[in-house]
Amino acid sequence: MQVNVIFFGVLSDVVGKNMLTIQDTDNMTDLKSKLITSYPNLKDYTFRMAVNQKMVEDNHLLFDNDLVAVMPPFAGG
What we know:
Low-confidence stretches: none
Oligomer: single chain
Shape: globular
Order of helices and strands: EHEHEEE
Radius of gyration: 12 Å
Number of strands: 5
Strand order of the largest sheet: 2-1-5-3-4
Distance between the termini: 38 Å
């Protein structure tokens, strides 16, 4: 199974790319752990994650070809 991950804002600078594919992950906790292991500087940033354009929590299950957005804090009006 694979998921596609898109990074926004400063997080794309931290990772060094806007998008990547992660193999063999089945939930958000596992994905977050893999991302921080591969890109240790991510642990210094606050971020939220969405799957297929819906904000989710760490225990959310992932499915093949899900699109995960990793976003820094933002404000709107």
